[in-house]
Design a protein that fits this description.
One of its GO terms (molecular function) is zinc ion binding. It is found in: Nucleus. InterPro entries: NuBaID_N. This is C3HC-type domain-containing protein. By secondary structure, this protein is an alpha+beta fold. It folds into 3 domains: about 15-80, no CATH class; about 90-195, no CATH class; about 205-320, no CATH class. The protein is built from 13 helices and 8 strands. A 3-stranded antiparallel beta sheet has the order 3-4-5. A 3-stranded antiparallel beta sheet has the order 6-7-8. Strand 7 and strand 8 form a beta hairpin. The longest helix is centred in the first third of the chain and has 17 residues, at about 5-20. Bound molecules: zinc ion (ZN) (2 copies).
Amino acid sequence: MDSLSHGRLQSLFGMMLRDSEGDKGRNLRMILGTPETRRIIKKWKYRTKNCERATSRNAFLPEKLQKLQPLYYNVSEIVGKEYKGLQLYSLEQALERLNSIVVGTNCVLLSWDDKWINELSLASKGWKFHSLAGETPNTLVLLCSCGRCDTKIYLDLHSTENHNNDNVQNLINERYWEDIVTKSRPSQCPWVSNQFDLSDYHLKEANLIHDITRMQGHETVHFGTSGEITHNSTPLFSQEQLFSLSEFFKCADKRKLELMLRGFIPVEGCNDAVICVRCFRKAFIGSITGSDYLNPHAPWCRYHDETKLPTMITSQLLSAKKTDDIKKRLSDLENYFESV
Ligand SMILES: [Zn+2]
Ligand SMILES: [Zn+2]
């Protein structure tokens, strides 16, 4: 970078800091990680210990050193231990609950709907699979339990007469959502008034990095059967798209690349099967790549629109190329600050 560009960058940095004093710069200040930000995080992360009450003996210390204990609690660790089942923002835990419901119910046909009651909506509200109850298929009900307070709910999603009428089922499921899913817990359970933010689950630019990271680990992924993917109708991805993505991910195996772009990883111990990493639906490679192509994803899955992920990555690559010139980027940034 030449000295002129460096000077312009410094002056922009100064503008960013000045701007961070106002309301508009609140997020910016957080990103910059100023001492003030670190002070605030520290203030809320640690709590002074009440030494009188913290009397648990340390068997490895002599009597005169028993008082030597940390003076602060790490609140983050306490929340992790004491509020098990309530990591509200944890995508990993939401996916664990989702997986438990999908695996627990995949052998029965239930009346899910896209809007109110489905595996994802239940998992987002803190429910996990408990069991299926009932003597016969017609009396089968789904039991879910709360990950936090262990409350259980019964959902009758197996009423055969309702399978024929989506509107009726939607109305029933809406009632289930309002009366059972959100209100069954005791009022002190934090899931009553909270829900995992599903925008973190669905595909958007801000969380595209999850997929890029996943796909960068493609060397360790091996799909069993070999051969070209053929589609009877129009291919899902264009050759140019596959070419630029195979360059980007350094993955010469186009077949593997295509399967991963559609959200699949191999099923352990089964050469011909794949599983989606976000809706946990399984499929044989032949059924999703051959002439009888079908979309195996759940309607609410992050990859249900199978062309969306490669399109988003490709457009990001194109826009990164366009703004590669440092002078152009500086000038865009200057224009931005002038406009605010
Ligand atoms: Zn609860
Ligand atoms: Zn899926």
